[in-house]
Structures
1.
Amino acid sequence: MKLWQTRRHWEKFARTDPLWAVLTAPDKAGNRWQVDEFFATGRRETDAALAHVFAHCPALRRGHALDFGCGVGRLTQGLAAHFDHVTGIDISNRMLEHARRHNRHGGRVTYLHNDRPDLACFADNTFDFVLSLITLQHVEPQFARRYIAEFARILAPGGAALFQVPERTAGPVPVRRLSLWPATLAKRLLRALNRSAAAVPVMEMHMLAREDVRKSIQAAGATVVHVYRHDAAGADFESYNYIVRKLPHNPACVKPVSTS
């Protein structure tokens, strides 16, 4: 799926059931999330994530943080309790409309739209902290790798990022059945099906191997300091959180990587 298609689907989620699209609890589909309950999950999840980060980066500055894939601002609002200023960025303008309406921190929180395959809207060394949970799993790996490299670029020296991405499915991968139809006919039929299902948004799921993530980070001039299991993608996927630190001016300050 191209980024413009991903944006189109998330705009539809934002129109129909925005809170559930961000946090897909089975019993909350159909606009059953209560707003206070929903945002309370973001505060708890942000607090838990930052406890891991501060354990490995205790001197992290608490100036400017970025919430990548912020949606309606569930985690952005939680970050505002810990940082002086927080920017939330998302591919969906409609999601950002919800986020601005639910903002409880005034000018300390800013929401921006970005549908590019990069973060060129931000200069190098802009943020002290970058957070991205249950977002990279919804974009094609080619884009996820680039965004991960961009996290390192926009971090200030000594800054840290925490992001989550699935590595593999938790069970056996279904066997794909080969089609005996000519490729051109199959493509025409697929296009027709896509048009007929255009009103139904799709939430794609993608994975990245841990070694693939490490290479992307190292190539961008940062280092992975801790990896731990976090099955935020659900029971069908084996998922991990990565704590990444941009090399400070004194590289000796960087702790070696640990995995749990």
2.
Amino acid sequence: MNKTTSKTTNNYRWLIWGIMVLSYIVVFFHRMAAGVVKDDLIQSFNISATTFANLGATYFYAYMLMQIPAGILADTLGARKTVTAGTLLAGVGSILFGFAPTVTVSFLGRLLVGMGVSVVFVCILKILSVWFRPEEFSTMSGITSFIGNMGGLLAQTPLALMVAVFTWRNTFMAIGLASILIAVLCYLVIRDYPADMQPQDNSAVSQQKKADKPSAKTFLQVITNKHTWPGFFLFAGFFGAYIAFSGTWGVSYMMDVYGLSKSNAANYPMAATLGLMVGSILIGVISDRSKSRKKPMIVFGLCYLATWAILVFSNGGKPPIEILYPLFFAMGFFCATFILTFAVAKEVNNPETAGVSTATVNTGGFLGAALLPALMGMYIDGAGQTLPAVTLYQNAFMYCLIAVVIATISIFLIKETGCRNIWHNFD
């Protein structure tokens, strides 16, 4: 490859990544949107808190169950076709969700959205492993999370304002149309391999795809590799607790416990989203530059545990409102620990299975994100009429604290990779 071709390829990778991150913003929007439109959904469909939590969790169940298939598709069909089809499906699901005449149809719309967006992040990680250098992986993963979280920001106060002006139905239908447009851009721009930039060199393309295609044996190596699983449980506990607060119950907590309006209450979970955005970049840079995965994870993880302990135990479950913005920002900031689990998963497994290995760990995060909010919803439904709001939420958030404790313990079981692939060391 000559210098001109190399420069063109190097520049084009940023265009590919940019379009995929645009799709990832939509992923985060849907991930965090349920909490803000909680009252609208309950009023429109006359549902309980448990049903609302299950409606929100449908996205995460679909996302979780699709992770291994998403990894296989990323490693075989390729990122271009997989992301295009997924984003298109998410657009259709969002339109259906906004149109839904009954709660059953809204569940179907939410299911389609979850299935569609489930493939995006795994495909981004696959693109990063192919188009970017290994020493850039964690930094780029963090930057990807930072920009993707802009969708999470849109799903807080801006979404509350949009719903107030345009109604929740019209808002979600508009997001669906935008998703379909992004799907078209994905198909036009994304290329799976640098060799695809040289269509005349078909042998180079086929050779690279053949080298990158996983077999059933390598897939089983991911599942049976004990070093894959600590990251799975870390991501489940940390991200599940984060979503339970920021994406589902945080707005209700601020309204019920502190008496804030919905638009003001939405600002507080948004602080956690901002924290996650900043933390995602910083922990990736720290890890790549220090050539360590485990040490940053231990420091960030212990601090994340401390934020949950403060929320649950400070002032009987009602910390002074003056500390909540910095507390929630810190919660999101230190939750970014999970960003490094993707790099570890890739580095303790066969490089040919970058899609499957990262998807396996990703499954854990969305298992936690589906279960914890639903468990809290069941508890709130059962005890909501007998306990004051402060005690009710303190007990409900205890589920999150326990999950974070288990996840923090799993950090110490993670294999230090030194920011390089050490899979062959296990032979």
